[in-house]
Amino acid sequence: MYATLAMWLSQPSNASFSLLIHAERTPESWIMRAYDKFPPLLFHEPPHADKYSREHFRGARKYYKTLASLPHGSNLWTLLGTLWHALSEREWPARYLLLWVVLEGLYGSSHPQETTFRLAQRAALHLERDRIGAQRLFREMKTAYSWRSRVAHGMQPAQMRKLTPELSNHLSSFVEQVVWRSLRSVLSSRTTIGLFANPKQRQTYLDELPFRR
Fold it and tell me: Which residues pair with 31 in a beta bridge?
């Protein structure tokens, strides 16, 4: 899982590990002890399907070391498992909700009031450095979250009829991109990892973002 997610963080593509073999080498031959199969990761129109350079593999190696060093039981460690299930899920409603679980784990507030506003604002201010970019991402996040709420609250037919294949593909691609950018940002240094791995420090950092402009 870590190896595949590390490759995805370095560059999204269809490349993934689907078979894990545990074998022991003896003087005479290899003896297979166990093996596991994993579902392949699925993407909506990956930008560079199966095209990896040495730089991308170096980046994947760096991300793998970072992922493997995360403390077990931390919220970041838990979110990786959720992300894995999201990226391997074929059904759009489940996949979309799981991606939002990752974003809420990164940017969500401990207070349920104004969830949409807070989450969208935090993501926009954390990821964008200029006002125009932050405002655009904020608006897009609010729209995408409104569809998350419709799916989570029963997928009413009157509302879901507006969800065309083109719109659902756009929403998924947008949310996947925000998740990708967010995790690359969070995992970029020990400082940001420490901020987001500690619930209190994460809340303090996100609450103070509006005042750092």
Answer: 24
Task: List CB contacts of 93: < 8 A, sequence separation 6 or more.
Answer: 151, 155
Cβ–Cβ under 8 Å, residues 175 and 92: no
Task: Look at the block and give the residue holding tokens 């901020």.
Answer: 195
Contact indicator for 107, 119 with CB cutoff of 8 Å: yes
| Cross-strand bridge partners of residue 21 | 35
Amino acid type, 69: S
Tell me the whole-structure pTM to 2 decimals: 0.85
C-alpha–C-alpha distance, residues 98 and 116, integer Å = 16
Nearest to 94 by CA among 102, 83, 86: 86
DSSP letter at 212? G
In the chain, where are the structural domains located?
1-69, 71-213
Please count the residues of the chain.
213
First to last CA, the chain: 37
Q: 154 or 8: which carries more pLDDT confidence?
A: 8
Other CB atoms closer than 10 Å to residue 62's CB: what's the count?
Answer: 15
